[in-house]
Structures are given as structure tokens and as C-alpha cells.
Design goal:
Strand order of the largest sheet: 4-12-11-10-7-5-6
Radius of gyration: 22 Å
Helix content: 25-40%
Low-confidence stretches: none
CATH superfamily of the largest domain: Type I PLP-dependent aspartate aminotransferase-like (Major domain)
Mean pLDDT: 94
Number of helices: 16
Length: 454
Amino acid sequence: MTQGQEYFLELNKQSDWVARSLRSVWHPCTQMQHHAQLDNPVPLIPVKSGKGAWLYDHEGRRYLDAISSWWVNLFGHANPRINAALKDQLDTLEHAMLAGFTHEPVIELSEKLSALTGHVLGHSFYASDGASAVEIALKMSFHSWRNNGKSGKQEFVCLKGSYHGETIGALAVTDVALFKDAYGPLLRASQTVMSPDARNARDGETAEDMARKAAADVERLFIERADKIAAIIIEPLVQCATGMAMHDPLYLKLVRDLCDRHSVHLILDEIAVGCGRTGTFFACEQAGVWPDFVCLSKGISGGYLPLSLVMTRDEIYQSFYSDDVTRGFLHSHSYTGNPLACRAALATLQIFEEDHVLAANRLKAARLTAALQPLAQHQRVRNFRQRGMIWAFDAIDATPDFSRRYFATAVEHELLMRPIGCTVYMMPPYILNDEEIDGLAANTLAVFDKVMAG
């Protein structure tokens, strides 16, 4: 038995939490057998508490949350300011249905988000998770065209390698085989265009060249089928679940122009890349454009409570405004605009403003990028890349089980990291201090060397 196997067996024996979980909880995005096998075990860590950038198990072991617990926890676990806001809201109003009622947190949050877009996107529709937000945007686009007398516009366009969620509608505009193939018979067909992924540039080509080539592919499709296409959906600047594929902002600018010329809606899925993750609050700001719909979730509530929303333009909103009930957007979620979740989001936005987070993140990003240079120059690494508070690199000649082995080895080094295939990435919370930044860089290199050595 290897040292790593002994470590994980000991970890899983620390209490009966793991055994109870394996008996009763079906964990997401997981082959459950991997937690039980002895020859190559994958740890199931029973988390007891969290503080700042760290998670703690029942034996007091700690793990730096280098991926913000699936990209949601922006300002650390148990953040005192968000805690205080939720405690105050809990004594006032925990929930009320949003059909026929409204409340202060949802109004204030909608106003503040609209202001962040210069009031271009002035109407917010709420749900609980990112996939639901994507479903809403798709339905809104189709229904808006129908209300405007263009019911033939029923198709949607997505990018190669795109990911937008795992509900039926969102999965139809997802192009990751691992998630999609099993459910293919259930899905509505969509059009797929090339990705502007800068990693695909040939010798002598730039990221801008890739943006132009990918936009040309969109133009070709629009010329052929714009009368049938309702919308194109894009993860702006970074396609996350396909391996942190990054592209030049020029692509968004070119596609925005094509959508305007061919009467196609532009949906930007900022669920993972919004809320400052790429360096600006909205990723699309770096291209100087606004979409017709923007989807937000994950970090908007600071990682505290399920919350998602779709923001859209007044002309979209007005297309539903009628005495005819059937022209209304008849979509609902039980917890739409939940006051507690909205209050967490307001506290999150307040931290952005009071702490000048975007400016502070630029300094943190520069320090971590510098600390990661040994990895960037590593002989087994290619495509080291960074955008805002996202870092990624690809392992050369990685084994098929690279992702699982990296995750398991990272746990031994006090790190929570989950590579995507052979792509290692970091999306840490925005609160890391210098010591934590340096430790993250050093341990990431140590884990990589150990895994690549077999």
C-alpha cells in the first residue's frame, strides 16, 4: 500500500461521516465507485467548517479552497460582513413568493445590477441556479421573437466546447461530450460554431486572428440561417468547463456586430466568468459591448445561497408587455428572488465597492502570476494562461487518470483543486494574502511534479 493510499484510508476512517455519506448521498459529477476502490482511492473529505480561504475537516486538517468551491466563494468562507447581512435579513423576511409580491432586497439588487450595466440591461428575472438562468434566457429569446411575429426563429447557436448547464435546454447548447452524450436523444438540436480558443492558433497566428476566424464561422452560419436562429450563447472570454479555453475580447465585439446585422439575440453566460472573475465585473466590459441577455449565478451571492438571474434590455421586456396573458413570460421558480439570497448578493456587491476589489485583484493576480512562473516554464507544461483571477495550464503527456490523481495528491498538500482533463486551473477567492498566494503557487508545482512523476 502506498503512502498516499494510507493517507486516504486514514482520512476516510477519521469518523463515520464518509461511510454515512457514501450510503445516503449521491454526489454530483462523480463516479461513486472511485471513492470506494482501494487500488486508486479518491478521497471524500468530510468538511466541518470553513474560514477565509480554508476548509477544515473533523480532524482539523485544512485545505486551501483554490477553486472557490466550484467558483462561487468570492470572499472566503464565513465572511463576517455577509454573515451579518444574512442574520439581519433572517429576522426580517426569509422568503415570500415573487408573483404578486415584491420586497426590498430584490428591488435593491435589481437596481444595483442595472446600474453596473449603465442601465442598458434594466430588467432582472430571478431563479436559483445557473442552468435555470440559461433556460430562462433561451425561452425569453424564442418567446420574444414569437411575440414580434418571427416565430420561425427557434434555433440556438453555441460554441464548440461550450458548457451552459445540465438541464435539458441548457444541455442542448452544451458541447462537452462527457455531459451530453448520454442524454442526446432527449435534446433539441442546436448549431455549433468554432471556438475562438487561443490555444488553437497556428504558428504565426495571434489570439485576435483566432477571434476573427471564429467570428467568420458565425457570419457564415448567420448568412445561411439567421431567419431560423433566435440566439447565440457564449461564455465570454473563458470557456470554463472545456478546460479554461480563453479568447480575445475582439471575438465578442465582432459577434455583437453580427447579431445586430442579422437580427439574432446575443446571450452571454457570465455565470462562471462574471462578478469580477476575469478582471472586470462583467467579462463583456472588456470588449466594450453589452448582450441582449446576461446570465449570472455562482459568485453573485458570494457563495452563500443559490441565486441566479437573467438581465435583459428594455426592448426585450417590452415585447412581453401586453393585456394578453399568453404574451407574458410564464416562467417561475418557487424561490425566485429569495430575500436571503438577494441580501447575500447585496452584501457581496457592497464588498466589491467598499474594498475596491477589482483594483486589489489586479495586484493579487500579478503576484500569483509571477509566483507561478516555474510552472509556466515547466518542460511538462504548455499553454500557461491567465485572465483576471483565473489561471490554467495543460499537462503534456498526462495519463487518463491525471485529474483524479491530481485532486488526490493536492489534498495531501492542503489544496482543493479539481483539474478538467489534463488542464490544471486555479480560481481562488479574492481574499488571499501574500503568504497564501505564495503557498498556492509552491504547492501547485509540488503536486504537479509528484503526479507527473507517477
